[in-house]
Each structure stands twice: as structure tokens, then as C-alpha cells.
Amino acid sequence: MSAWKGLLARARSILRPGDAEARLDEEFRFHVETQTEHLIREGVPPAEARRQALLAFGAVEGHREAMRDERGARYLDDLRADVRYALKSIRRHPGFILAATLTLGLGIGVNGIVFGYVNSILFRPVPAHAPGELAALFTRDTRTGATGAVGYDDFVDFRDRSGAFAGLAAMTGTPVNLMVPQGAGNAIGDMVWAEIVTEDFFSVLGTRPAIGRFFTAADAPQGGNPFVVLSYLTWQRRFQGDPQVLGRSVRINGREFVVTGVAPPGFRGMRRLGFWPEVWMPIGMQPIVQPGAPNLLHGRGGGPLLVVGRLRPGADLDGTQVMAAEFARQLEAAYPRSNAHVGVRVLAAAVGFENPSIIKPQILVLSSALGIFGSLIVLAIICANLAVLQLARTASRAREIAIRLSLGCSRGRLARQLFVESLMMSAPGVALGAVMMRLASPLEPYFTPKLAFQVGLAPTADARVMLFTGAIAVAAVMVFGLIPAVRAGRFGLGTHAASALGAGRSDVQRPSRTRSVLVASQLALAVMPLIAASLFVRSLSMADTVNLGFEPRDRVMVSMNVGLQGYDQARGLRFYEEVLRRTRMLPGVVAASFSYPAPFDTNDRAVRLYVEGRANSSDGTVGAQGTFVADDFIPALGLRLQAGRDFTPGDDADAPLAMVVSESLASRLWPGKSPVGQRARYGGASGPEVSVIGVVGDAKFAVIGEVSTTRAYLPLRQRYRDWETLVVHTRDTPASTLAALREVIAGIDPSLPPFGALTMEQAVTNGFFSSRMAVAIASFFGLLALLIASVGLYAVVARSVVERTQEMGVRIALGLTPRGVLAHLMRDGARLGLIGLAFGLAGGLGLARAMAGVLPGVSPADPLTFTVVPAALIVVVAIATFVPARRAARLDAAAALRTE
Amino acid sequence: MSPHRPSEPDPLRGSIDLLVLKALSLEPMHGWGIGARIQQMSRGRLDVNQGSLYPALQRLEHRGDIESAWQTTENNRRARYYTLTARGRRELGHQLEKWKRFTQAISLIVEG
After folding, report:
1. What residues of B are in contact with residue A7 (Cβ under 8 Å)?
2. Which residue in chain A has the smallest CA separation from B2?
3. What's the distance, CA A378 to chain centroid?
4. Cβ distance A469 to A115 under 8 Å?
5. CB contact, 8 Å: B30 with chain A?
6. What residues does B49 pair with on adjacent strands?
7. What is the tally of structural domains in chain B?
8. Is the pTM above the cut of 0.80?
9. Count of beta carbons in the 10 Å neighbourhood of residue A55
10. Enclosing domain of residue B19
11. What CATH number is given to the structural domain containing B91?
């Protein structure tokens, strides 16, 4: 304790030197006065007493100096001098500071972001009680080793009879229609991702609700427990964080459910990847949550359930695996028909889990390691560049350093000064990195694909991420700061001083091979993402002019899933018909129809068609995209009819099977023939026969990944789907049309939530989202790489300029013009630049070919890209070599020679 | 650069620490009082130089052997009083031990 107090006292006196001095003054004054009084009491006259007291006390200033030294104030004074010196140096080299700040900051920030994602995949525990005790239970085929989900009856036996776990819960994911009452009879709904879980799910996890409580097995019998737990995000977004939400009822798939509680922030169930659940419901309600689906509450030898359990106190994974496997053998013996060869696999679930046969854990680890490795390499290159640059600056100060050494400045002191300088130069970079690291989470929505439900990793800057990034930053600053400091420490006195004064006389004249290779490869690596970014930009600008094949203007769309509401096909078709009838009566509506998928949404369905003699696959069929539409879809979607006719209400189950094909599909299946009236078979040679009744122009339903525009349009009445998108061509405003459409749907089924309402133009914009994101990412990394490479190139040239000062002096003395000096020094840099460019272009061309599939409208050898990128690089190379070389060209021959 | 300063405590430094700790082992005291007490305990033979006393007090405080606080004296003046800490008391024990061994050794040589 007292050692600690001593430390405090010391820290106080160092941190607040003014206070310490003032206290010292008072203490000294007290001493002199007390001594004076003492002497007076002994009979000395007052004036004489004071003189004696002062005399005895000695030179007060002397004491003060001794005590200041004792306090470590000298150290502090030296540090202040170093800081002042560094600040001066920083002011003199703003360009260097800018380069150091940007490259270090981005390097550290990228490391922080990458680790943030890795952390959320590999390390961050689920927000549950003692997550280390959680384990996942999968079935395991004892012949193949493949793991799978579990059936309910097996799960119940494992839970109640195996004794292998302290608790066991099961879950499965599903979309549901959610309607949230807004008062006054209105409701806002959406289709959301849900998890149905066993009633004891939350108590097995030991998760605490943010508000309210979780449902339990004791609440009500299965089937009589219409309770729902909201995710924290859903509570905030759909219920505005209303604390009164508890006890309110919402409609899920048309049935009333009561909100019992809200899950804690960050709780997204036990799945590592996959959709984020918005609501959790008891598994007993599955018949209502998944109407028409097979009953979940029975089944053996595999099933749809993901199972998570808590280990018994003191038990480990291996022991639990042994116990569970033994119990699985008992089940196998008892139920040989369903459970033959069904073993188990117990896995750690502290950070969540996925079926290891679907998502290989090694791949997650490997890709994480690659990400970290890559970002560390980037940072290492940055540090190496900055260290070389700093060395070049140190070398150019070699004369000053040698003089200071011979004047008695200790080497340690000198190294410390350079280290302080590096620290101060890297401080803004570290700060920038810390800011960047925090962007991981807010930026995530821009990087995750837009799917029907939210996905993501939700990286958070938790203690682990802070620690990792902090350690990375410290290591980077040490590497960047210590190399020059150690090198400076090597400048010796005497003979060493002489060689330091004549810096680099015996040094190699060309930049070192390693450094050259490093810089050339940096440039090459910068070229590739720049080419990718440029190609993406070109492709996007082409896409603006490219013919979509449909007319997106004045069109709105809204989706609905009647299957979740429990509609059968007959009721679904009646519902679609009624929606279309009422919609077509709305003012301003030109055309209305259903489509699935709608243009530019993320779903797609393939159909296989068999045509005699046209087969090219093993089963003799040709694949095409399938679109399931209602009558009048051609004007509603704005397609162009080229031959034949549109669907009518007459194309129903009683009529012959009919389809409309796209131009490409027609020429693929019946080249050179008139397609209308041609016949094909669904699925294979023995499938039902379908005839072509119309041909429409090719349309782009997606941007990325769509190479073919071969598409078959099939009538809903013959090929029913319970999830459709209503597409309406209207002369009214999108907002009022969408409001009217919601009323139409609510008028028919008030508990059915319409979702995904937007204009067709918005859908097209969303469709280009991934391309725009790819542009942003490729540009960011391209520019980052270019920045790093140019700093490296600058450093190499600057260093060779310093090393060759004398040589240049001699050459100038022998008649070389400044222009000649410049050319001479820039030649090396230019050579490195061209080598890097050549390799980069070769790599870029390869990359462009590999990306051809996702770059519609642009040739992989796009001439504009392959002109602009090299030109930009040549400009950067020229600047990075010219600036340091110019300094040498300005040399005065006599002064340069004198550096000897 | 600063001139070289000895980093090892010289004998005088060592003994003034011992004297201060000993003087404070009776009761808390201010700087002047410590000097006066050492003088008194040595029956006037030792007059501690203030130039070593105050740095020694600061050193001991930073080491955690003593702590200080501002208090009022009997004649109503503010003075900085130093108190021995538990650590300081142990340190005093060690130093006394060392001192005794040292003086015994010297005596053996000088008187032997």
C-alpha cells in the first residue's frame, strides 16, 4: 500500500511540477522561520537570528535543483525537449506526416475492421449465461460422417432420458407474416424471419431479457402458448422501443400472439451466420406458424431441428460426446427402422454454431486467418515504407547526429529522441486508425447483400477487438519508430563518426534489391484493384444505357406470402384474382399483374424444359429461369410482346399447359423456327407437355450473375405459387398507389402483411447495389494500395538521393546539369515503377477475365481502363520520384562534395 | 547532457535515511523538527545539513517509506508533517540490522 502511495506522490510531483515547487517553497519558508524563532529563544537578536537561519539553510536554490533531479524532473525536461524538437521536425515535413498518418491510420483501421469481423465469427460468445458450457448436438451418419439436424422425438429422448446434458433446447427458422397493430384498427406488417424454439430455449441458454420475460415450458401446454419474444432491434424498429409492448398482441400468420418479452441487444439466436431472427415463438405453435408444413413435433433419425444444450456441471465436450453416442446406440437398437446408422456429434457452441457439414468450421478459420494475415502484411509494408523514409531522413541528418555525438550526447539519448519523434509522427495515424475501426459496424449494412431478411456479422469494437487493434498499433509504431532509432544508435564516434559524416560513401549505390522488389510488388498490387474498380465503374455506366428489356418507369410493386397465412391453392388463386380485380379498378392504374420473381428481387426459380433433339445436359433438358405470372403481365411489367399473345384468365387448370418464352430461350430451343405453337415438356422426356403461346423480348431481371436471359413465363393458374409480387403500372404517384394497394389487400385479408413495397426504379437501383459496393471496395483498396506504394517509392528514391549525394556532387563538378542529375536519379524510380506497372497490368488483365461474368457491357480488355489506370500510375510514379530527386538536383556541387 | 551523477547511494545518503526513519519512529514530525530531533538525540553532535535532509525526505516519500500531510503546529502555523508508513517501519528494521552489522565489523577491525 505505502509503495503505491509513494508512486502516487511521485506521479503527482512529476505531473504537476508547479504544485510541487510551491509546496517546497512553503516548506522551506517554514523551516527558516522556525529556525529563526528557535535562535531568538536562545537569545540571538532577531535580525542576526534570521541571517544565521538562512545561512544554515544554505542556498535554497541548490536544494531545489537536487530535489528536482530526485523527482525525475530532468527526465521530464529532456522529454519536453524531445517533444519540442519532434514538433519542429513535424512542422518542417508536413508531407511526411500526411503520408505517415494516412497509411498508418488506414493500415491500423483495416486491421481493426478485419479483426472485428473475425472476432464476431470466431471469438465473440453468444450473449448467454456461461456460454463456454453450451454445446450443439447433431446427428452423425456413422457410415459417411455427415452431420445433420435432429428429429423432435429423438431430441425429447436426448433431453429427458440420456442424462448427457444439464438442459437441451431445439430450434428452427422460418419466415412469418407479422402484423403490428397501430391503433384505430390499422396495422403495419412485413414478412420477417422467425425462429420457433422449444419452450425451454431461453432458460437453457440462461439469457436475460431486456424487458419482460421469456416464455417457459411451465406457461401453458404446447399449442396453447401463443407467446412471442421480440429481438431488441425489432422492438426498436417496429415498436419504437415502447416499454408498453409487453402483453400487447400482434398477428403472426393471421393468429394473435402475446408479446412476453424482448431479447437482450445483440442476441440473434445460436446461429453464427444466417438470417437474423426478429421474433421467437414456442415450438408448440408450429402448426400455426408453419401452416401446411409437416408437423415438427415428431420424427426420428434426423429432422429439421438445430439442438443446443448445456453441459452437466464439470462435464467436458469429450465426455458428453461419449455419453451421447452411447445413448444414440440405445436409440438405434430401439428404433432400428428410423435410427439405423444415426450417431451423434457434440460441438462447442460458445460462439454459436452451424451444421459443420454445410458450413465447414475450417473454412471459417482459414478465411479469418487469411483476412488477418492479409491486413497484417499491408500494415507491415506500411511500416517498412515509413521506416525506410525515416531512415532516409535520419541519414540526411547524419552530420548533425555525428556532431551531437561528439559533443557528448549519449547514444541512448539520441535513440530516444528519434523514437519520440517517430511516436509523435505516428500518433495522428493511430488516432485515425481508432476512428476507422469503429466504422466496421455502421458500415456493415452497405457491405451485406440485400436479401429478403437481414444478414450480417454485427462486428462490435468490444474489449477483444480493442486489445488486438491496440497491440497491432503499438507493434506498428514500435517497428516504425525503433528501426531508425536503432540505426541511429549505431552512428559511433571517431572512425564511425567520419563515415557517418560522409554518409553512404561505402554504401551500395543502387537501392537494395529487397527494397526494390518490395516497392515494385506494391505497385503491381495497387494496379489490380484499380483496374477492377475502373471496370466496375465502366460496367455501371454501361448499365445505365443498357436496355433492361422492361419499362421500369411509373411502376410500383408489393409482395405478399399467402402460404404463411394458411391459404391453400384454391383460396390463394381466388385471393390473387380479387386483388387484381380491385387493383385494376383503382384510378390511374394502367395495368396490373402478379410476378414471381419480380425484376431485380433476389429470388429466382429454375425450370427445366425438354425439347426433342435440343438436349445438352445429362438428363436431356435445357435449363431456364422460371417466372410465375398472372394474366396481363406483359403490359404490367412493361415487356415487349414480339409474337403470339399474353396470358388470359382462360389459361387455367382446365386449359392446355401454356408458356411465354423470352427471345433468347426461343432461339435456344427452336433456332430458326417460329416459336409460337412449339411444344416442350416440363422436367424431362416424360414430363407434361406445354406449348408456347407467346414470345417477349429479353429482359434483365438481375445484374450480377445473370449471364443468360433465357426465361420462361408460366401462368399462375397452372403453376401455383403462394408467394407473389403485385406489379402495377400506374399514372398516379407511387406513394398514393402503394397506399391504395395496401388498402386493397387489407380489404380482403386484414391480417396479411404486404412487404417489400417499392417502385420498380428503386428495385433496379437496389439491383445495382452490389456492383456499386464492389466499386467502392475496389476503389478504396486500390487507392490505399496506390498510396502505400507511392510512399514506398518515394522512400526508396529519397534514400538513394541521400546515399548518392557525393556522387552527384562529383558529377555536377564534372559538368552534369541539374536536369541531368534529376534524370539520373529518377531513372531508378521510373524503372521500378514500370516493372511494377507491367506485372500489375498482367495481373489486372487476368483479374478482368475472371470477372467477365459479373461485368455486363464491358470487354475485359476495356481500352479506356487499360489507358487511364497506367496513365494515373505513371503520374503517381513521376511525382513520387521527382519530389525527392529535385532536392538533389538543386545541390551546390561544392556543398555536395563537402559532405565527405 | 547532464554531468554524471552517482546512481548508487553513497554511505552518507544511506545513513541519513536511517537517521530520518529513526527520528520519525517516535512520532510524526516536520522537517525542522526532524533535524532538531536528530541533533538532540545525538546530544548535539550531529547537525544534519538541510541540503541533504529535504531531498532525503522526498526520496523516502517517493519510495513509500514515509508519507506527508499538511497540519497545524502548536503555535498555529501550517507545516508539512512526515509519518512513518508500515513499509518504512520494516525498512527501519532492515537498516538498523545492517547498520549494527556494519559497526560491529568496523569495531572488530578498529579495536582488534
Report:
1. 62, 64
2. A74
3. 17
4. yes
5. yes
6. none
7. 1
8. no
9. 9
10. 11-111
11. 1.10.10.10
